[in-house]
Structure formats: C-alpha cells, structure tokens
Amino acid sequence: MATIIYSVIVEIRKEVESEWIQYMKKHVPDVINTNCFKDYNIRKKIEPNPESTQQAYTSTYVIDYHCNSLDDLQRYFDKFAKDLQAEHAEKFKDQFKSSRNILEDQFTEWFELISLDKYAARNY
Known about the structure:
This protein is an alpha+beta fold. 44% of the residues lie in helices and 30% in strands. The protein has a single domain, classed as Alpha-Beta Plaits (2-Layer Sandwich), CATH 3.30.70.
C-alpha cells in the first residue's frame, strides 16, 4: 500500500523564523496527535528559490505528513485542518506564504523489492 504524503511548503520571514520554529515544535505534534498521520519529516530548503521575490528575507521549509490512506487525509481535512491552519495563520499573519500538495509515495515499495531481490540473489 502506497503512503499518502500531505506536503506543506512554508516560506517564513527570517525575522520570525526562530519564533516559528518554536511554534512548530508544538504545532507538528498537534497535527500528528489527530491520529490521521503516522509520521512526518521537516526539511529546510538550502538552495536559493528562484521564484521567491524576497529570497534574502525568507527561509523555506517543507513539512511532509505521511498517512496510510486518502481516507485518513480526508478525516484530517474534515475534522482538524481548519482550526490548526487558522491558529498558524493568525499567529504568523503576513509573515509567511504556504502551499500544499498531496503526493503518493510510489517508489518506496519498489526500492524495498529491489533491495530484497539483491539480498536474495546474494544468498543463492
């Protein structure tokens, strides 16, 4: 079964970045505690963003929340997303831009199968 990834990209102004990071240490566990997601990854973009008009003034983060199904993700949208997103938007009003993507992890299982095949080939 492929993992569904709810990917949130946040471009945050550098003058509030430290405060935002501290906030995210509470916010991300709140999202995970909805029991709609099984885990997450947070990454900071280190290469320049050619689409950003304020590159020198912002940092970009990608938060990937992983869930088992689209039903789990829909449950998050139906029951939790509005309040959690509103809290973030109110706290960092005019200090960030965000976008969201829904992805399906197609290749993890494929790579696991390749690894198993290589392991099996070494043992025969």
